[in-house]
Design brief:
76% of the residues lie in helices and 3% in strands. The protein contains 15 helices and 3 strands. It has helices at residues 14-20, 51-78, 83-99, 106-154, 162-181, 188-237, 243-260, 265-289, 291-295, 298-313, 320-336, 342-362, 369-374, 379-402, 405-427, and strands at residues 21-23, 28-31, 41-45. Strands 1-2-3 form a 3-stranded antiparallel sheet. Helix 6 packs antiparallel against helix 7, helix 10 (298-313) runs antiparallel to helix 11 (320-336) and helix 10 packs parallel to helix 12. It is rod-shaped, with a radius of gyration of 45 Å.
Amino acid sequence: MSPAIKPNYHQTPLDEVRERTRVDEEGHVYVKPAAEDGEEAYVGQFSAGDAEAALQYFTRKFDELYNRALLLRARVATQADSAGSLRSSQTTLSKELEAGTWVGDVAGLRGILKEIGQGIDAVSAEEKRQNQEVVTAKLAVREDIVRAAEELAAVDPDRQHWKSAQDRMNELFEQWKSEQRTPPRLSKSQEDPLWKRFREARSTFERHRKAFFVRRDKEAAEIKKAKEELIAEAEKLQHSTEFGPTTKAYHRLMDQWKELGRGPRKTEDSQWARFRAAQDVFFSARDQANAKIDAEYSANLATKEEVLAKLRELMPFTKPEAVRERYFALMAAWDAAGKVPRADIKRMERAIGEVQDAFREAEGATRSPREAARNDRQSEMIEQLEDTISQLERERDQAASDGDDKRKSEAEDALAARRSWLQMLTSS
């Protein structure tokens, strides 16, 4: 506490007390009237000593009350407590003062309590000002939350990244609830307009999300139907012996297939297998017819086999930068070697593709193993495993809740097996 606002210390001079009081033989203390025609005021009795001791006793009681007021005045000056707490202390002191008859400067003490009241009024006004600043800041935070939600809801549904957008909207809702729980609380008139905007933004967002996925499901069904038509056309051409025109026709079908994009996850792989099967029948027959031509590519095949072996010697690409120059030199040699027999095209393309994928991954390919797994033909199995794992987790939790240790143990064993299978699929 700084020297300027020390509570000081009050001690009533006994000489003043003797002039204004009277003590009878039984230790009863009276305060003399200020005017000649006034009546004495009874203070109390002190029987544990003589008259001097009685005066000292009641003087100390008054001085204690007075010094408590001085201490409260210092607390008000330093704003050591809230206005409510300070006001409560002031009220207590005032009640004590007015409830008794005292030996001391009662008028002076009343003046101090009045001064304290004025100081508390100033503290209260400052608290209100600070509280308004906090409320203003809190309103700004709520406004930011609402604006962010409205921006999400205003995004073109076809351009929205729905997974991250849904996560963001959920995050904003959690922020809103957290702000509601954190003081100071906003008034109803302050909060309601913001909540209305936030609620409307969330409703609009959800309406757009549902409409987008309904439309996507419809488009997926249309893609599935269109691909069935391409499969039927591919199957009609699979036994054609007009290799040139039919090869172009299959290329056209392939272009149309790609333009359609991916269809429903559950049917895309099986449709693709049927489409490729029809093409394989045709191209196999064409390859047999061109076997004589392929013979001249045998030397090229031998060269590429040698290049592939040298590339594999560089694997695994733990330090891609160290072998980059050698890697690209070998890739250039691979390209320069020319065509290989048709029967070996797929095998060699697959082999070189594995090397290229490994090198790209080592250099920091952006696709995660999980994303890669979902883009290959294992996606349906992965989805089924994830559904099974979710069901087993629910069964395990229910068994734990029911206290069925046997059923819980069985569920945990099944979970461990499925998770192991899922790990193998997604890391392959």
